[in-house]
Amino acid sequence: MGEKRRRVGFVGCPPEDVLKAQGVAELVDLDNVIEGARPRGESLLPRTTCRIIRRILDNALSVELDEIIVDEGYGKCDAARGLAELLEDLLDVPVIRTQNDNRQSAGTPISDSALPLLRKVELILDGFVNPQEVELTAQPKPRAAMWGVPAADFSIYEPFPDGTQVLGWTRCLENRTPAEWELEMYVPVGVPTVFFAQTFCPKNVVAQHLARRHDGLHVDVDGVLSQPVRAKIEAFLRFKRVWD
Questions:
Q1: Whether residues 121 and 234 fall in one domain
Q2: What are the C-alpha distances in Å from 10 to residues 26, 27, 205?
Q3: In 3-state terms, what secondary structure has residue 17?
Q4: What is the DSSP letter of 6?
Q5: What radius of gyration do the chain's Cα atoms show?
Q6: Domain span at residue 59?
Q7: Which of 35, 47, 65, 226 lies 20 to 30 angstroms, CA to CA, from 142?
Q8: In whole angstroms, what is the distance from residue 157 CA to residue 116 CA?
Q9: What is d(CA 102, CA 235) in angstroms, rounded to the nearest whole number?
């Protein structure tokens, strides 16, 4: 009987060399939804903690792991740095702290493709653990764009037209440069853009600022997308004649 395969959880976008050093270990993206993970961390975190940090903790407490790698640099957030401390105390596994300052572009073909927005985000988030070969057609003139971080509730991507451009930290994630501030701040001129961050995420400061600068719409969501926020996005897209 062969040796048991190691299972390594990771948070954010750790450096490529750190992930490759894990060899044949099974990588588990703790930022993403893991079926069967129970909400066990609610009492361990402040009420003003964003939904993704809560999810990471719930996943880490629910999945049997041999090691956890946390990108705690500018590519993630201060909450991830604090979470690394919490995980070290709660779990009897090594917690490896990393900082991804990579500036070597991997490209953004998915973000700039003609695919539906929801499909784009799925491909970007699955790119670490389960990269897929997908035929991509570039969308040089997107009708809309969405700036920000990956949402906890993917239904927020449904009102957008196919080819909606992916901007913000999600674009940086595909590019494998999570701390590249200039790329994160990039917004194309004249493209109707929704600026999104999780409720309680500090990125809402710049999201609201960019929305004002570019005549866009700023929204934040705590977990499940509410009908009023969805209606606000749909109204914005209609007002900007995205669907004409």
A1: yes
A2: 11, 7, 26
A3: helix
A4: P
A5: 18
A6: 7-98
A7: 226
A8: 9
A9: 38
